[in-house]
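Quick note —
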Amino acid sequence: MHIFTAKHDVMRIFLIGFTASGKTTIGKQLAGKLGLTFFDIDQYIEKKFDKPVSTIFSERGESHLRLLEMTALHSLLFKPDFVLSTGGGTPCFYDNMRRMNNNGITIYLEASVDELFSRLKNDLGNRPLLQVKTEDALKQFIEINLANRKIFYEKAHIRISSSSIDINKIVDQIRDFQKPE
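Predicted structure written out below.
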């Protein structure tokens, strides 16, 4: 069995993917299965600033939120043994994707535009970037942003369809993973 470990024999797993790809749900299950601590970057930021991410976004804007995500990610890199659910845009800003790839295993939870639309259409008011979108605008937003973000997402070590997740298969892929030289 080859379990990838980064520096100092730690296991860090970063789940990336578009909003509603299942990062938090899968992350909690995966952390439980592996006996690791689970972090959700949005919850981490909300706890630190005692404000919902949606409020931070509306008060300070997306660029400020991306800066907070980067800062949170850098802080978490000092912790060992965890599963982190990132924000959908986290890998796409600053050097976040490189840092995650260099400090653990990145897993891209891949979902189609139609699948993401189905998951998000009833949740427009609860997502900072989607608060004022109609269903037509939502579908277009997903198409455009997913296309722009894929270049970052596809740098992940492992790609998994989030359509039908089998946690045991993910665990097996992590165990068999060997970091490229």
